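From the pipeline queue, job 12 of 40. The input is one protein chain; the requested action is below.

Action: predict structure.
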Amino acid sequence: MNENFKSGFVSFVGRTNVGKSTLLNSLMHEKIAIIANKPQTTRTAIKAILNDENYQIIITDTPGIHKPKTKLGEAMIETAFTTLEEVDVVVFLIEATSTEIGKGDSRILEKLKVANKKCILAINKIDLVEKETLLKLIKIYSEEYAFRAVVPISATSGEGTDKLIEEIVKLLPNGPKYYSQDEYTDQTTRQMIEEMIREKALRFLNEEVPHGIYVELEKFKTGKTMKNEKIFNIDAVIYCGKESHKGIIIGKGGNMLKRISTSSRYDIEKMLGEKVNLKIWVKVREGWQEKETIVKKFRI
């Protein structure tokens, strides 16, 4: 093994909708984390394994920092901050459009100071601001914390992401490969399918409905088609918190549920490389966001 091989654990932290999941997928060139233009899309810590002949970076994408209103929200915040204690490097992601350090970012900075970890400041969405604005933002944050590096990036275009990887590798210790070369996430196939379905619901549904749902697979089995081709038979349930939401998720004549199912099946078939027979039901579990027996599945 290469004596100079670098390996270690990295955590992405930041407010909701700052682009952590988009950045993770950009670095991996794979769909690891679901993305939707809604806050609190990521609910639990998702690990991705970035492999190279000279390094292995295990990246944890954490839930966005927000003011929790439920036990689920509290679990998400707990997950995000717990990872700070367990990693070698922290990447603190902020938006280039910020003009000051807001409450959410101030809270993160406080936790970083306590954890005293090697930290890189990644400034996302640089395509939206002028250079002068960016320099002012760098000065504001650099006065608050001794960042090991500051890297302006665009998670959507990939600009600056190679530089970010370079800076992360610099801070990692020499070490072994914790995962095999062909592994790229610690999520199970079932978990990834559940998240794919939830992603479509987040994209197609409006307002409060998406945040009141979670998805569970009830069946995930292989079978054969009439033409003797391999097929995955998948039964999933979208649980929502209110009876009124059930009708919205199903839609008039079942149109919304069909839309969610069709789009989900496309992504699942792409991931599995096989045909998929996907059936989705909608059920109500009132107040599930406050039930510890359910919320615990979102804790690390």
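Job complete. The two ends are 32 Å apart (CA to CA).
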